[in-house]
Amino acid sequence: MAEAGSFADRVKQQADIVRVIGEYVRLKKSGQNFTGLCPFHAEKSPSFAVHPTKQIYHCFGCGVGGDVFKFVMEMEKCAFPEAIRVVAEKCGIAVPRQKDRSPEERKENQQRSVLVEMHREAQTFFVKQLEGTLEGKAARGYLEDRGLDKETIARFGIGYAPSGGDILLRFLKQKYPEKLLVESGLVSRDQNGGRFFDRFRRRITFPISNESGKIVAFGARALGDDMPKYLNSPETPIYSKSNVLYHMDRAKDALRRQDFAILVEGYMDAIAVARAGISNVVASCGTSLAEPQIKLLGRFTRRVIVNYDPDTAGQTATERSLSLLLEQDFEVRVLALPPVGNKKADPDLFIRERGKDEYLRLLKEAPPYVDYLIARARQMDLTTGEGKQRALNFLLPYIQKIPSGILRSEWATRIAQQLRIDEPLLRSALSKAAKERRSEIKTAPELIGRAAKPVERRLIRMLAEAEGFRHDLAQQLQNAHLYHGLETEKIFAALVLASLSGQPLQATEVGALLEERDRRLLFEILFEEANEPTWEEAMSCIEALQHRQAEHELADVQRSIEANPAAPELRGLLEKKQELMRRLAAAR
Ligand SMILES: [Zn+2]
Q: How many angstroms is it from 17 CA to the middle of ligand 1?
């Protein structure tokens, strides 16, 4: 728990839970809360809610809930201290040095920050090489030919790695040990472990930043005919290619605003599209998309237009990406650009030759992925039964991923028509495939919050937020033992205690005192849409509880009377019964 005055407490005070969770889940404002698809269970309609003022989240589907730290712990699968650090970093709060970090951890962290620093230095070096050397001049010429002007070069930090073989190495060696240089991936060592040399030579360099904008790797394109044409940094302690999307750091805002992403293959494509004023573009920067990259993207949008190269490798990459994206419930369209002249067009070439307006037009018209796939299937040999079977086998895995039965059925008709396949046959294949689809996790009934009576819910809510009279209300409830015996007794007890303390309510701290099912019910109540509470309303709720209490007592007394007690007791019971009946009658 965040102890008052501790660093954790300070972070919690300053952190905006909506912003932090918003980096993992797409949240929409809905009434007083924000809602989105729960990241902890599979669902199609949002039951996950974040409360901006109470600074808590709650899922009405699977029941998870807590504060910003709990969320990060669950999401990042990390421990509390790590969660504090993550939240602090996301909110730009300086983290004090942790004494309790293990020496190895400290060493690794230190190494990582040195590697990042090294990349920053290398970036400055590459940029200088491009600007100020003879070789760089030739590289600039090449870039100009590709339509990249000075402004673009500066904007994307494009640089040049000279051909010398160890110029960067000599530059970095002044400050860093050779072992670390090799770790950084900027320097390689020859096969028999002898000579060190620059990894990138005679290449145009493109800095690759992680999501938070730190340069963690480089991509490099050969200037001449050197192979390979594109060479990237290897995996290092700060870079894993399946975790990074090129241009993500700059695309974030546009992705959120426009609610869709354009996915391209390489950095040249991303630069071309971004230059055309379309900022919501990212590049997978490698062969095909990996699952961590999709998860990263999914934090900002779940709609993607895939615009890979039209060559065979690009098609294969498109189809593999489609599968992954559909598995993660993305809405996917595919833009297959038409050839320019007789050349197959990647986004870079297309925008250069045909202009950004034409690109934008095609982008708007990009068909749903199924249309793209049908077009692909139609290119197969459909004259034989075998050929048709192959085409169908190609399509089925994608079609079965369509969540809506109606849509699936529409597509079945279309596929049958377009591929001239017998429709009933196709449908039976589809329904067989559909049965194999992994089903959504169903919410178990016992996980749904128990029904509490409206009066109890209302009082619980008031104890949690009626700053003006929580204390008095708690006093009354406690003095009259009004919540004893209620199903919500424990929730009341915890809230009354908290209200009497005179401190503002910390929902997660009250929740921590409760059993899980009570904690869920409390959070559920806190998220209900409700009016500003008034003291009059509180009093009428109290009356209702008193009434209920009297009814219960009356029933008890009646049972005791019917048990034929001895005379003196009977008299007392009858008097009590009279009294209770008077009270109930008066309340009516
Ligand atoms: Zn959930």
A: 17
